Hints:
Blueprint: H1 3-6, H2 17-83, H3 86-125
Amino acid sequence: MTERDQHPPPENEAPDLGEFLGSVAADAQGYFEARKALITLDLSERGGRIAARAVWIIVALLLVALGIGLLAAALGLYLGRVLHDNVLGFLAAGGVLFATTGLFYLLWRWVLRERIILAVINAAHAKPEHLP
């Protein structure tokens, strides 16, 4: 032990400024490390939520695409029976899919695109407690 530790300063003596600043610096460093850990945790949670939602969307899109493909094949076979020619049946089913895609494209250009962009912007700036 040093002489200073054995004999604390009297109460009327001012504390050492170097020790005070050292303790403030240590407290500030601890605060910034805690904030860094909190921000890292928050970002990793958001990243996990985004990854989970992306996987769910990809699986849902694959299942919808599979369903549409099976329905198109069934429609082609049905129209092939009605027209007495499988080639014409599948050609007609392809035409129906092409027309449906064209209608969706027009709907996308005039209605859906701006709404989706606005929803994404609003979701990006919303507070987490306001999100579903």
